[in-house]
Amino acid sequence: MSQPDWASAGLSARAGAIYFGLVFAVGFALGTVRQLFVVPLTGELTGVLIESPIMVLASYVIAVRVTAQMRVAARLLPRLLMGATAFGLLLAVELALSMLMSGWTLDQWLLNFASAQGAVSLAIFALFGVMPILLLRKPL
Q: What is this structure's pTM?
């Protein structure tokens, strides 16, 4: 049985943090546009549905680039660690921003995922988290 490759684990975690940061920046910009311009015209659910395919595409493109540039091994565990790091950071920052900007409690934040737009957001978050693993199949 071989020892864990801690250097590879560190690289995967760093790649996950970079992946998170880049996708979050895109999401923050799109979310601002959505809240200021789209939601007043279409409603919250439609706004999230319009934003979602763009976020999936951004997650895909950024995951492809980060895994290639950082040379994250095309194996399940390194990609799982990259995705889990990014997903964990996303949830932590989303919760913190919801508390700071909206004054939500943890319970309110969690209950938001029971709404239609919250469920769509959670699905996109989950897809973002597993994207590095999905890339184990040949990218387009």
A: 0.92
